[in-house]
Specification:
With about 350 residues, the protein is an all-alpha fold. It is built from eleven helices and two strands; from the N terminus they run H-H-H-H-E-H-H-H-H-H-H-E-H. Strands 1-2 form a two-stranded antiparallel ribbon.
Length: about 350
């Protein structure tokens, strides 16, 4: 398929998704309508992946993967805030649960799937060790400062931070993420580029017109994904409550829905022997999730004075520490096999199992 043509389904599916959002006030929560919303959501995710890949091929790496990571994270922040603010104290932990779930999904689910698929098809895959090490260093720092340290601060009892502490954590999170983006895209861009040429490295890039159309359609797709996810969230919350699962599972579902475009794009890149692109997408999205979500939520909750629960309980702290440790070790050689993929997927399965059965 030529990159200078726009497949019909890539714009038709977002149109259907937007139609479903406009029809929601009239359709209510009928089972058939919710089924249609779920199908539209899945189709729109695939359309978003297509447009992100068109943009990525035009602007090159690592800018292409950064586009999708930033776009998805901005929409994720909007979804979290739109659910948290009306929910009051009952939703005080939603940002923490969603950010933690995003880290576990990305660093174990998506990375594990990419390493497994790539290993099954290509036996061993190479990537830039310097880039992965840089990303893991920033990810470990952000994770501990935002999700573990609040449980041990003493100004306010419990896993909370005072307004001054919250503002400080927001500033340092934004500083760390901003510095990482500067290093990734300008100062040490070569750390995040594959050493060999990929299979489509010499394919003609899309025209400027097609690229701008894909930019617009990508934004429409991402907003539609969030809108449809919000339509489905009450049904998801009822289903979670019906199964007797903890409310934290709602954060996992939100993070999973929003991260679907990046997950699919990363898996496809790994199968095409472009593991560097997969890791750029995965680790970049985990960093963007913390580096943009925490500062934004911190600013809003400092000014509104509402409680914001950030510190993780002990079980989740152990899983996060295991994820960071294993991630640093499995990406420490610059080469991966199916073994690293299986290890990460087992950790992800453990995270999901103990979230549903605490």
């Amino acid at each position: 398929m030529s990159l200078n043509t726009i497949p019909r389904w890539t714009w038709a599916l977002p149109v259907i998704a937007w139609g479903a959002m406009f029809a929601s006030p009239f359709a209510g929560e009928a089972t058939l309508f919710l089924l249609l919303v779920g199908m539209a959501l899945a189709g729109t995710v695939f359309a978003a992946v297509h447009h992100a890949e068109v943009i990525a091929h035009r602007v090159g790496e690592p800018f292409g993967t950064l586009v999708l990571a930033l776009a998805v994270t901005v929409i994720e922040v909007a979804l979290i805030i739109s659910v948290m603010l009306p929910g009051g104290e009952a939703k005080a932990a939603l940002a923490r649960d969603t950010v933690f779930a995003a880290i576990m999904i990305v660093c174990n689910g998506i990375v594990g799937l990419c390493l497994l698929l790539g290993g099954l098809r290509h036996r061993e895959q190479d990537f830039q060790l310097r880039g992965a090490s840089t990303a893991m260093t920033v990810l470990a720092s952000l994770s501990v400062l935002t999700l573990i340290l609040p449980s041990y601060a003493q100004s306010i009892p419990g896993p909370f931070l005072g307004s001054t502490q919250l503002a400080f954590i927001g500033v340092v999170s934004l500083l760390l993420y901003g510095t990482f983006v500067f290093v990734q895209t300008i100062r040490h861009r070569d750390y995040f580029l594959a050493e060999g040429s990929s299979a489509d490295a010499h394919a003609a890039p899309p025209s400027l017109r097609v690229t701008w159309i894909s930019v617009g359609l990508l934004l429409l797709c991402l907003v539609a994904v969030v809108g449809l996810a919000k339509l489905l969230s009450p049904a998801v919350e009822r289903a979670v409550a019906g199964f007797g699962a903890p409310e934290a599972v709602v954060g996992i579902v939100i993070a999973g829905l929003v991260l679907l475009p990046e997950g699919i794009a990363a898996a496809r890149a790994a199968r095409a022997d472009r593991l560097q692109t997969s890791l750029n997408l995965a680790l970049g999205s985990a960093l963007a999730t913390i580096g943009l979500t925490i500062p934004t939520v911190a600013i809003i909750f400092v000014f509104t004075g509402k409680p914001l629960l950030l510190g993780l309980p002990m079980k989740e702290t152990v899983l996060l520490a295991l994820t960071l440790l294993v991630g640093s070790m499995s990406l420490a050689t610059g080469r991966t096999t199916v073994l690293q993929g299986i290890v990460h997927l087992v950790i992800f399965a453990s995270f999901f199992f103990f979230a549903v059965v605490p």
